[in-house]
Write a structure and sequence with these properties.
It catalyses: L-alanine = D-alanine. It comes from Flavobacterium sediminilitoris. With about 375 residues, this protein is an alpha/beta fold. The chain is about 30% helix and about 25% strand. It has an 8-stranded parallel β-barrel. Strands 1, 10, 13, 14, 16, 17 and 18 form a 7-stranded mixed beta sheet that branches.
Length: about 375
């Protein structure tokens, strides 16, 4: 078992976030917990168990591998929706396990209907519309063909959802682009109506859209980053706070990342520390090494930049982040010894290292930083 570091995920913090989101979006809107990217680094299996205990029964993932992990963990107790990649070879498993999935090309539609027929079980489809992101989705011009096919194959295909995805709702700079996407989505929806096709649900919102554009909430919201206690961008947080009297962030960070001091040593003034010459000791220094590096997801761009907490004090990463090790300046900290707790993300005594502070120092998006945390690190649910 890997013991170099541990990720703790806090069930109460997640419950707090879910309660806030449900209150914001209202009872009629289904909250789908987006758990692609190993649940944004939180650990897929542990995270869905915890989320289920907190009342979540709908999960959205990117691919079949993730869907399988959720199915093996929670079985039929939850709805699983694949928003991205399904290989042809996996369609039979997906359909026979009643896993729902996005369809964005006619090839997939035909293939799904063929396999569903063979299995004698309807495929549960969410038809994705291309509204302006230019990634995946049916164009407006294709919709009548799609509609006709859905009608012809209605014994094999269940048109459960109509959906789209916004290209950058977290920034007001994209305001007009998002507005245009909403118009195109509504147009797609009315074309289906002319064929008497009415999907059970419509959905379009990610975290940012759900907060910034209430009309995008529809029947279901696909919420990733907010449920983890983080904001899609500072802009979305500011816009939320501006609308409220109480200027406090209602969300709580779910993740904590901890390691321990591996060894402590003293260095003479004028010595270089670590590989190369990126850091020279200007005075006598005391250095702690931590058994954690870029192979575990601690970005190399945090060389001479990162901050960690040891004995309740904030300390600097010095020198380059190595593959498996960090060196930390602990000159000012008394009694630091092997085995002392090191907090990479989270709170120790009165201080906190936030996820946002990483982005500031390493130019990584909070999304990127989190999903790069190695899968091999053990995850533990805490209260
Ligand atoms: C990742 C993703 C989401 C969730 O995005 P957040 O910004 O984390 O809420 C929603 N929809 C789709 C299609 C996605 O890929």
């Amino acid at each position: 078992m890997h013991k170099n570091s541990i990720i703790e995920i806090n069930q109460n913090a997640h419950k707090n976030n879910i309660d806030f989101l449900k209150k914001t979006f209202g009872k009629k809107v289904i909250l789908s917990s987006v758990v692609k990217g190993n649940a944004y680094g939180h650990g897929l299996k542990e995270f869905v168990l915890m989320a289920f205990a907190n009342g979540i029964t709908h999960f959205s993932v990117f691919d079949v591998e993730e869907a399988k992990i959720i199915f093996d963990t929670l079985g039929n107790k939850v709805t699983i929706l694949i928003m991205g990649f399904v290989a042809d070879d996996d369609l039979a498993w997906v359909i026979s396990h009643q896993i729902e999935f996005f369809v964005f090309e006619r090839y997939r539609l035909a293939k799904a209907s063929k396999i569903a027929k063979k299995l004698n079980q309807k495929a549960i489809l969410h038809i994705e519309i291309e509204t302006g992101m230019n990634r995946t989705g049916f164009k407006i011009s294709e919709i009548s063909k799609v509609a006709q096919f859905l009608i012809k194959e209605k014994d094999n295909l269940y048109f459960k959802g109509l959906c789209t995805h916004f290209a950058g709702a977290e920034s007001i700079a994209n305001y007009y682009r998002v507005q245009k996407q909403i118009v195109i989505f509504n147009e797609a929806s009315s074309i289906f109506s002319t064929f008497e096709l009415h999907p059970k649900i419509k959905h379009s919102a990610c975290s940012a859209a759900a907060m910034m554009f209430p009309e995008t909430r529809m029947d279901l919201v696909r919420i990733g980053i907010l449920q983890y206690g983080l904001w899609p961008s500072p802009e979305v947080l500011v816009s939320y706070l501006n609308s409220k009297k109480k200027k406090i962030d209602p969300l709580q960070r779910v993740i904590t990342w901890k390691s321990e001091v591996m060894s402590v040593k003293r260095v003479k003034s004028g010595e270089f520390i670590g590989y190369g010459t990126s850091f020279m000791a200007k005075n006598k220094m005391k250095i702690a090494t931590i058994p954690l590096g870029y192979s575990h997801g601690y970005s190399r761009s945090l060389s001479n930049q990162g901050r960690v907490l040891i004995n309740g004090k904030r300390c600097m990463v010095i020198g380059t982040v190595n593959m498996n090790m960090l060196t930390i300046d602990v000159s000012e900290i008394e009694h630091v010894k092997k085995g002392d707790e090191v907090v990479l993300i989270g709170t120790q005594e009165k201080l906190t290292v936030s996820v946002a502070s990483f982005s500031d120092f390493s130019n990584q998006l909070n999304y990127e930083l989190l999903t790069r945390i190695s899968k091999t690190i053990p995850r533990k649910i805490t209260l």
